[in-house]
């Protein structure tokens, strides 16, 4: 059910400039476990709530005109969590994909998963493949889910791929530039995030989009992910629009 708050914020708020919205927003969805603990609930309830928040953020991005959303769903380090929690997350991902795919098709969402997907359960891999295949021609918002993803591992993989092409004589070392390197990343074909949001107040990237976030504007909020709603997203966008993006050049501000 849509809350009154979300009804009010269905349209782009008047104090935001549509022409200065980030094209691509990335989110580190942190704080699910802490939220559940504060509620006196098991950690898995925080993850369930977090899925609902992500679904609404995706629709909010679509409603307000953001072209792409990337969510950090499961890192390569998250395998170190308790086995019960990891198994629940894998099952949750699979169930949500199966249940939501029809709606994503209706809403013209293009889904892409990035990360070492071969290490995921076979049944989840099948759902991931199906979701990407069925939505590949959709022209709406691009929704990227980083699953079993690590930024350092992604860079190493790209380096190995390029080294193999050099060994095969396909390219020469002098051919390597940023454009070529980016084509070997998981995120090839997706523009770099303009805005990277992290919830729960932690001040680190946690191995997320290390190459792609080189010039992303960072926004950190103490709000835990399950409490991150359209009002919080509005605040993040206001902060973004108050900044001057210089990309290493001299800006206009004194």
The gist of it:
The chain is of the alpha/beta class and 254 residues long. It has eight helices and six strands.
Number of helices: 8
Mean pLDDT: 93
Kindly state the number of beta strands.
Answer: 6
Ends apart, CA distance between termini? 48 Å
Quaternary organisation of the protein chains? single chain
Which parts are unreliable, with pLDDT below 50 for 5 consecutive residues or more? 1-7
- The geometry reads as globular
Estimate percent helicity.
40-55%
Structure description:
By secondary structure, the protein is an alpha/beta fold. It is 42% helix and 13% strand. The protein is built from eight helices and six strands; from the N terminus they run αβααβαβαβααββα. The chain has a six-stranded parallel beta sheet, with helices on both faces. Strand 3 (110-114), helix 5 and strand 4 (142-149) form a beta-alpha-beta unit. Helix 2 (32-38) packs across helix 3 (43-64) and helix 4 packs parallel to helix 5 (122-135). The radius of gyration is 19 Å and the shape is globular.
């Amino acid at each position: 059910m849509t809350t009154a708050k979300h009804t009010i914020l269905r349209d782009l708020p008047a104090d935001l400039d549509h022409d200065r919205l980030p094209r691509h927003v990335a989110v580190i969805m942190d704080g699910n476990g802490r939220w559940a603990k504060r509620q006196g609930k098991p950690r898995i309830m925080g993850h369930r709530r977090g899925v609902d928040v992500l679904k609404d953020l995706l629709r909010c991005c679509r409603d307000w005109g953001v072209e792409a959303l990337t969510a950090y769903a499961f890192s390569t380090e998250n395998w170190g969590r308790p086995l019960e929690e990891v198994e629940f997350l894998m099952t949750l991902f699979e169930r949500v994909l199966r249940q939501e795919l029809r709606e994503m098709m209706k809403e013209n969402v293009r889904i892409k998963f990035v990360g070492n997907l071969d290490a995921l359960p076979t049944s989840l891999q099948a759902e991931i493949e199906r979701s990407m295949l069925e939505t590949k021609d959709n022209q709406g918002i691009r929704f990227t889910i980083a699953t079993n993803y690590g930024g350092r591992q992604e860079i190493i993989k790209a380096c190995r791929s390029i080294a193999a092409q050099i060994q095969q004589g396909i390219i020469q070392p002098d051919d390597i530039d940023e454009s070529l390197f980016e084509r070997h990343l998981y995120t090839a074909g997706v523009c770099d995030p303009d805005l990277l949001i992290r919830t729960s107040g932690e001040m680190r990237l946690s191995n997320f989009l290390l190459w792609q976030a080189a010039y992303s504007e960072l926004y950190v909020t103490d709000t835990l992910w399950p409490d991150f709603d359209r009002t919080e997203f509005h605040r993040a966008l206001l902060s973004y629009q108050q900044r001057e993006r210089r990309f290493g050049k001299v800006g206009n501000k004194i």
